[in-house]
User: Fold these one by one.
Assistant:
Number 1:
Amino acid sequence: MGEGVLHGSAGERKGYTVIATVGFSPYGSRPGGSGCLPVWIKMYMRLRSLVISLYNALFARVVEKLFFHQLVTKTNNFGKSNWLGNPIWQNTFDLWIAQETIHDVKPSLIIECGTNRGGSAYFYAQLFDLMGTDGRVVSVDIEKLHELSHPRVTYLIGSSVSDEIAGQIRAMAEAATGPVLVILDSDHSEAHVAKELEIYAPMTTVGSYCLVQDGIIDELFMFRKGRPGPLPALEKYLARHPEFEIDHERCKRFLITHHPKGWLKRVQ
Ligand SMILES: C[S@@+](CC[C@H](N)C(=O)[O-])C[C@H]1O[C@@H](n2cnc3c(N)ncnc32)[C@H](O)[C@@H]1O
């Protein structure tokens, strides 16, 4: 799998040979470096580096966008995915990053705006089961669309920005004995996300994250009807709140994501 990978040094981390990384020399670590190589091999390696640099500069982003467009179309925007038989409306790549983040942070409480058919809250709760921690999930939606239940999950019905719901969730966040992680996945309009950020981002504990989902609405042409979406809301919020920073590595790890700039880390 490492061979032919064009981006970065992930393969090196795993110990494989990433032969196509720009400027990488398979002979570089030998005594004498590439200086003793035949001229035609040096020329070949330079030409290959040039081709890869050109590809990255001119085409890589376009290829990523085209692939993302195809993927969203083919999967009905991930609308038919299941977690252990329960519908979960998430990009699979993003779900993996969520899993890693939950393992890193080990939240006492996950606040989820946007339950839908319940699969994501169930997934987070079962990660807590697997980790053996005391984590709980509170998930809110304006309507009940599922019959799921899990001892770690509190389901609330109402608008995430209503005083009543915000008050109930704030009380749970204040009672949490460890990290609080926030996931905004309800109404993705700029106005609504801006309100949710004002209410819920401050509940994020230092070192944890507020995930603003579906900024892709503002980037992928096929979602243009949903604009303005989460991206302007989060950018305006960040401009006024230096206590949050975008964790770009989490956002960009798999190249395509529904949540560009979405992983906001609370740093102070
Ligand atoms: C994208 S879906 C959530 C998907 C879910 N998190 C999952 O991964 O399966 C968005 C949900 O937000 C809900 N929603 C819309 N406006 C809302 C509001 N004001 N408050 C709470 N939930 C809302 C919708 O009813 C819908 O079920």
Number 2:
Amino acid sequence: MTRPLRNYCEDCEWAASTETYSNRELSRLAIEHAVEHGHDIESEVPENRLL
Ligand SMILES: [Zn+2]
């Protein structure tokens, strides 16, 4: 089982995860958001995910 990886912004409501995007797309989107808006992106692997 592969846990989804989630990226979210500390400065606004932006968030994306590998449930919606591929790993490559997710990192690209996160970098683009950080560059375009000057925001800080955090990533997490949700531990208590309800299945
Ligand atoms: Zn942001």
Number 3:
Amino acid sequence: MQSNQSPYETVDQAKISALRHQHAWLVDPLYKASEAVTTMPFFNWVRNIEDVREFKPVAEQLYYHSATFPKVLGLMLGLTSLRENPMMPFYSKHAFGEADHHMLLRDWMLKHGLIESPLELSQVITSVYTNSCVNLAYQLAVEQDREKWLVTINSGIERCSNDFFKVVAPKMYELDAGDIYFDIHVEADEHHSIMGLEYLASPDGLAFDPESHRAKVLLRKALEGVSLWGAMLHSWIGINYLPLFDDKGQLTNPVDEVTGSHRRVKIH
Ligand SMILES: [Fe+2]
Ligand SMILES: [Fe+2]
């Protein structure tokens, strides 16, 4: 499918509210944690960019993340057990939807002079937290725990990604560098984030017990995803910061206490 044709259905707001309410034990802390990430220094950094080329260190790492994500989604699909066969369309649609995003980003980088040749992208050394974030997804794909996957990748990471693109997409228009790569994620990641909740209840229709140990395991895993996402964004601009959250999604180590002021990345 062409990326200028959205593969994502319209989001049904009534359905979303019902899912949010049903899974408040997960959604409330997760939304609180992901919202905290949006107030961190990385987003100030983005808002203060004056030249699109300043975005290069971010785009290079994001390229790696974008190119790896569909591979991990494909791994999740490929390792699906017979018992989980009904999940196959969900995994494959997500993999398909993400498959060409890295190429859109590569073309955008070439168009705006962030790179001169695609070969430069193979020279990028990814940060520890870029690797950590990607490796978490690999771990989940190998583990084949559907609920862990859904709460961490869909409800957690996709929501964080949506927050990222909601800020970056309009910023790029401000810099005369707006692009479908950024725009498509504002819609797509919202869709991915919400639709994961639909498959949280087991196939026999039993809902989750929010008080159970299992619920706590799932919440901790989802919050781990938000922590690694936040750390990854900051590693892209030279800030070493791993945000941590309690079970209510409250940030326990504010950035000022950890790093002091952040430094600005220069144009290379
Ligand atoms: Fe994507
Ligand atoms: Fe996505």
Number 4:
Amino acid sequence: MAVFKKCLVFLLVLLTAFALQIIFFSPISPDILELPLTSPSASVPPSNNQLQKVIKLGEGLLEGPEDVAVDEDGALYTATRGGWIRRLHRNGSWEDWKKFESNTLLGIATPKRGGLIVCDADKGLLKFTDDGVTVLASHVDGSEIR
Ligand SMILES: *[C@@H]1O[C@H](CO)[C@@H](O)[C@H](O)[C@H]1NC(C)=O
């Protein structure tokens, strides 16, 4: 029983020493962290109605347009999921310019020499002109572009 008491006293002394060590020599500062105050105007951007002026082009006319490009005459092109290349003329009228049997037409670009370059995820790189469609690249290093 005396051994048990000695152990208990030793344990209490140990815990007290440990607690005093933490209270007086702890590297953790108990100081309250003061964050800089922000002015209310800095956290809330000024309101505006810029997005109210956005005009949706081709709403209801275009099925899944993926990209847009503008040619030198100012006509805007887009390739749709249905395989259509649609052209928006400067006078605001849409034209079904070209139809291609594909539902994977993605990015488009208007090169300086005219026509329209279209990336097709299945068939490769295509060039559309008023005369028709040319496949510019369907393979790279012997591997089919996919
Ligand atoms: C709009 O412009 C295109 C290209 O110049 C022309 O073919 C089309 O007839 C015009 N549409 C209207 C409604 O003026």
